[in-house]
Structure formats: C-alpha cells, structure tokens
C-alpha cells in the first residue's frame, strides 16, 4: 500500500523556516497505530493524515499526530494541510474549505498567500504564581510582566501563557526538564501540557513554546494552537481588537510569522490565525 505525501513549511516567509509538516493523503485505510508509527518515523512536530475527502462540500477529515500522541487540534497542521488541499489536492482550488478534527469543524480560507483558520471559543483555566517558575527556570521575579496573569488557556489544546517583560528574557530562558515535567503534571488541567512564553515589547510580539515529549524538553518553531490561546489571552487582558504578527522560532533558527486578526465582542471571541506555507517536496510512502 502506497500513500502520497507532501512536505511543507508552515508559518514560513521562505523555505526552510517555520514549522515542518508532513501531509499524507488517502489515509482512510490506516489504523491509528500505523499513523502513530509513521509520525514517529517522520519525527516532525506533527504529521497529518487525510482520512476523508468531500469534494462537493470542500471539506476533509484529518487526524493529527505528534511523534508521541494524537492531537485534537493543532494550528500549523491545519494551516499546512489546508494549503496542500486547496493548492494541490482539490483540482478546482477552492478558497474556502472546512477541516474536520476531533474538536469539530474548523473553517479555513485563503487570502492571497495567507491561509487563515477560525479558532474555537477559548476556555480560561487556572492562574499561577510567578514564584512557581522560579523553581524550574532561570527567570527572576523581575523578568515577569505582572500586568498580565499567568494562565492556562485552551481553544482545543491547552497552554500555560507566561508573560515576560523582554525579548532578552525569552532568548536567555532555560528550563529544568525534570522539574518542569513535575510542575506540568501537577498543575495542568488537560492531557496536553505545554508552556507558551511571550513578550510584547515595543509593539513586537515574540514567543517560545516548550513542552516535554518522549522525556525530552522540546521547543516548537511555530505553534498555531498556542497562538490561538495567546490571541484569546491578549483580547481578554490587553485590548478587544488585535492585528499583529507573532514571531516564534527565532531562537532555534526556524523563524516563523503567525498572523493574528481577532476581536472580542460581548464575550464572543473572533480568533483568526494566519500564515504562509512553503512547498518543499512530495513523494510516495510505502506502508
């Protein structure tokens, strides 16, 4: 059995930047175990598997896997898979499609060279003390931006949003893997446990996503799901409208640009995440 696959860079202004993604089409005959094994073999942050296409409705059902587990929602896989569908797989190249993932339907549209997703309504979970982070990071108490809370937020995948004052604090950030892992398991409300540090300095938004996977501390080059949570967080605590670019991946030499376009109106969050996708390669995968 052979599958067609595509490799793209997502949230990338040029090739070999942003976050890598492998997209497998015609994956309806694969088991979850097989998908997990393929994702582990590819070893990108995520791989996606298209299990159903509906050409008339411009929709597709996909499954998203990291090398370790399946994701209910993830931003860069949805953006990248949608780009492949709209520009390669769907012959009529629609500008709007719907992706079906475990949390439900995700509307996606393309405008110029940007693909945008509409995120689900956020949930704001527990808040935390900056003192906690002194135990497992090299941050000092003066590094935190105490204008904002430290809070776990989810729009499908949960992230602890951690505001810091400066890009320098972000760049120099170091975490203790074992202590971080203990804290995440003790405090996070969902099975998806991750930290999203950010600073908004001189109107430039910069971020870093770190989590524990396969017993390793890993950093993601571009995290759309975390960006959806961060956009919700900024709409709630900073301003009810936002149009800004989130810069992630700078410190691991995979610079990424994640476009924010959001609005908060009477407790309704209109959260849109956008980005450019660069085509890298295609081929056949033998199962």
**How large, in whole angstroms, is the Cα Rg?**
18 Å
CATH second-level architecture of the largest domain = Roll
Please report which band the strand proportion falls in: under 5%, 5-15%, 15-25%, 25-35%, 35-45% or over 45%.
35-45%
Mean pLDDT: 96
- Can you say what the CATH homologous superfamily of the largest domain is? Diaminopimelate Epimerase, Chain A, domain 1
* Biggest sheet details: 18 strands, mixed
Helix coverage percent: 10-25%
Uncertain runs are none
What gap, in angstroms, lies between the N and C termini?
Answer: 5 Å
- The CATH topology label of the largest domain is Diaminopimelate Epimerase, Chain A, domain 1
The global form is globular
Number of helices: 6
How many domains in all? 2
Helix/strand-derived class? alpha+beta
By CATH reckoning, the class of the largest domain would read Alpha Beta
- H/E element sequence: EEHEEEHEEEEHEEHHEEEHEEEE
Number of strands: 18
């Amino acid at each position: 059995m052979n599958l067609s696959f595509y490799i793209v860079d997502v949230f990338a202004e040029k090739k070999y930047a942003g976050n890598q993604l492998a997209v497998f089409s015609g994956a309806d005959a694969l088991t979850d175990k097989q998908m997990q094994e393929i994702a582990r073999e590819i070893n990108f942050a995520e791989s996606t598997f298209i299990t159903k296409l509906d050409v008339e409705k411009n929709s597709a059902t996909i499954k998203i896997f990291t090398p370790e587990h399946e994701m209910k929602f993830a931003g860069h896989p949805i953006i990248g898979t949608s780009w492949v569908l709209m520009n390669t797989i769907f012959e009529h190249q629609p500008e709007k499609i719907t992706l079906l993932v475990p949390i439900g339907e995700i509307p996606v549209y393309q405008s110029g060279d940007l693909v945008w997703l509409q995120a689900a309504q956020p949930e704001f979970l527990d808040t935390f003390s900056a003192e906690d982070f002194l135990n497992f990071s090299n941050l000092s108490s003066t590094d935190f931006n105490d204008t904002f809370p430290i809070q776990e937020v989810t729009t499908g995948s949960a992230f602890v949003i951690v505001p810091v004052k400066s890009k320098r604090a972000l760049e120099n950030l170091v975490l203790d893997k074992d202590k971080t892992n203990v804290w995440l398991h003790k405090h996070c409300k969902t099975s998806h446990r991750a930290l999203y540090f950010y600073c908004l300095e001189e109107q430039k938004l910069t971020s870093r996503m770190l989590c524990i996977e396969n017993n390793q501390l890993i950093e993601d080059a571009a995290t759309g799901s975390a960006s959806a949570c961060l956009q919700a967080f900024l709409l709630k605590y900073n301003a009810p409208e936002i149009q800004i670019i989130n810069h992630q991946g700078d410190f691991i030499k995979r610079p990424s640009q994640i476009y924010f376009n959001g609005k908060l109106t009477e407790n309704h969050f209109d959260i849109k995440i956008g980005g450019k996708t660069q085509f890298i390669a295609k081929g056949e995968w033998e199962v």
